[in-house]
């Protein structure tokens, strides 16, 4: 199914971007373009991110660890 008509990105392309390490809509947009143009599909992109991460506990744990590292205060790494 097409998720982003602006760039012709499908739900599979978004899922593949998440499987490759994208954890946010901005990261997905950088990888496949979905959500990077007009933004109308970002809610759908976020839903696909959540569903894809929920499907694999290891991937989700790695994603949460990565996000925790990225948002932790400087100097606590």
From TrEMBL:
Residues 2-50 form the BFD-like [2Fe-2S]-binding domain. Gene3D superfamilies: BFD-like [2Fe-2S]-binding domain (1.10.10.1100). The keyword Transmembrane does not apply. One of its GO terms (molecular function) is 2 iron, 2 sulfur cluster binding. This is Bacterioferritin-associated ferredoxin. The keyword Oxidoreductase does not apply. Keywords: 2Fe-2S, Electron transport, Iron, Iron-sulfur, Metal-binding, Transport. InterPro entries: BFD-associated_ferredoxin, BFD-like_2Fe2S-bd_dom, BFD-like_2Fe2S-bd_dom_sf. It comes from the Bacteria.
